[in-house]
Structure formats: C-alpha cells, structure tokens
Amino acid sequence: MALNAQWAEAWLRECARVLAEHRTELIELDRAIGDADHGENMHRGFSAVLTKLDDGGQETPAAALKLAAMTLMSTVGGAAGPLYGTAFLRAATALGDEREVGASGVVGFLTAARDGVVARGKAEPGDKTMVDAWTPAVEAAGTAEAAGATAAEALKAAANAAQAGAAGTEPLIARKGRASYLGERSAGHRDPGAVSTALILQAAADIAER
Ligand code: ADP
Ligand code: MG
Ligand code: MG
Fold first, then answer.
1. Residue 77: band (very low, low, confident or very high) from pLDDT cuts 50, 70, 90
2. Angle at 100 between CA 98 and CA 103, to 5 degrees
3. Per the database record, which ranges form the DhaL domain (predicted)?
4. Of 24, 98, 106, 194, which has the fewest CB atoms closer than 10 Å, so is most exposed?
5. Residue 76 is inside which H or E element, if any?
6. Which residue puts its alpha carbon closest to atom 23 of ligand 1?
7. Global confidence as pTM
8. Looking at ligand 1, which atom is closest to the CA of residue 37?
9. pLDDT confidence band for 71 (50 / 70 / 90)
10. Which residues surround ligand 3, an ion (CB under 5 A)?
11. Which atom of ligand 1 is found nearest the CA of 191?
12. How confident is the model at residue 1 (pLDDT cuts 50, 70, 90)?
C-alpha cells in the first residue's frame, strides 16, 4: 500500500499486535540483563496507542506517529518510553505534512528517529542498545533508496537490517542502560530494546507490502 496516513495507522496497530505476541519473549530477554519489564512496558504503551487511534482523525502519517509518540512517552515509562517517544516524535517532525511517504522519506524519518534515540540516550553503536537495531536499519534504507528501491522495499531492507542488528547484540557487553550494571555478564543475551525495534520496523515493512 501507499505509505499514507492509513499505512501509519495500520503500522501502529500492527505494532500493538506484534508486541502483544512477543510480550513474554521481551520480558524474558529483559529478565536476563535487566528488570524483566520491557515486554510489559511495550505492550502497555502500544495498547494505549490503539485506544488513542480509535478516536480517529489522523490525516497524515506524521499525525499518527505524533499521537503514538505522546502516548508512548506518557505510558511506557522506564528507559524505553522516552526513547521510543522521541523516536516517533522526531520521525513525525521529519515527515511534516507529507501525505504519502516515498523512499527518501523513509530514509528521512528513520534517520530522524535514530538520531532522536541517540540524542536522548547517548548510546553509540556497539553499546548493546536499540541503537544497534536502528543504525543498521537507517544505513540499509539509505543504500536501498540510492539503488532505486521503492518506499516499501526501503522499509523491508531496514527491517531486515534491524533484525540482524538485534541478533548481533547477543555477544556484546552493555555499556548503556540497566544492562550495563551487569558488565561482562550482559554478554550472551540479545538486547530487548534492539529486538523490539526490529519488531516495530518489521511491522512497518509488512504493512507497506500489503
Ligand atoms: P528499563 O531499562 O528502564 O526497565 P525497558 O526495559 O523498557 O526500560 O527498556 C530497556 C531497553 O532500553 C534496553 O534493552 C535498550 O535497548 C534501551 N536503552 C536503555 N538505555 C538506553 C540508552 N541510553 N540508549 C539507547 N537505548 C537504551
Ligand atoms: Mg526493563
Ligand atoms: Mg524498568
């Protein structure tokens, strides 16, 4: 489908569905290196987004993403709430009043989201955080766009790269967030926030493909 307001709304609804489905997995990942609440936090946040979407009235992709940002900031809590809130808010700002997002728009909003996460959390690639999913996603979308990909193809490339990035956090030692308290014992587990980022980007790509 075209990446319009309906896409953005369907993406957020798919996030809620997928995060509910992966709630236990994210809890277990966070139990290993954190405080076992990431699945709960994300499920609560996106359930609240669903309720807000039901009120309707989002006429642009940015409006839907901004609604999600505000809701996530006020309902998710922990580290992930402000990080995802900032990501979605910056993405919305990057999209402005565009009604249909093209491939360069995909690169633009993903870059803005990633930059927002970095501005907020100060993590670098390799610190074993969600940045390790966002950054390869941004790079892959950029490469795809430069090669002439459609918006949906750019999103798919981003989602695949995020998934690989999340898998790649397993051997890393955490240097930011709660997992960093574990030091070397944080190695051997995937970062929960990198996994949730991969799920969120996969949802965006799946809806775009319909
Ligand atoms: P909390 O750690 O407060 O319980 P969550 O469990 O919901 O919050 O989220 C944890 C995730 O947040 C981590 O897996 C990591 O991906 C992400 N995170 C934590 N701190 C940072 C940071 N400084 N920069 C980027 N991401 C971070
Ligand atoms: Mg946690
Ligand atoms: Mg917590």
1. confident
2. 105
3. 6-206
4. 24
5. none
6. 121
7. 0.98
8. 6
9. very high
10. 35, 37, 78
11. 14
12. very high
Give the whole-angstrom CA distance, residue 127 versus residue 60. Answer: 34
Give the pocket of ligand 1 (CB within 6 Å): 30, 34-35, 37-38, 41, 78-80, 83, 117, 121-123, 129-131, 176-178, 191-194
* Gyration radius of the chain's alpha carbons: 16
Nearest CA to ligand 1 atom 11: 193
pLDDT tier at 120, thresholds 50, 70, 90: very high
CA distance to 10, 142, 166, 186, 198, per residue, from 16 (Å): 10, 27, 19, 28, 14
Q: Indicate which atom in ligand 1 lies nearest the CA of residue 29.
A: 14
Residue 78 belongs to a domain with what CATH number? 1.25.40.340
* pLDDT (mean) for 35-59: 96
Instruction: Compute, in angstroms, the gap from residue 36 CA to the centroid of ligand 3.
Output: 7
Q: What token pair was written down for 13? A: 């609804």
Specify the residue with its C-alpha closest to ligand 1, atom 20.
177
Counted residue by residue, the chain has a size of 210
Tokens of 80: 């992930």
Does residue 120 contact residue 73 with C-beta atoms inside 8 Å? no
Domain limits at 75?
5-209
DSSP state at residue 78: T
- 37 in Cβ contact with 75 (< 8 Å): no
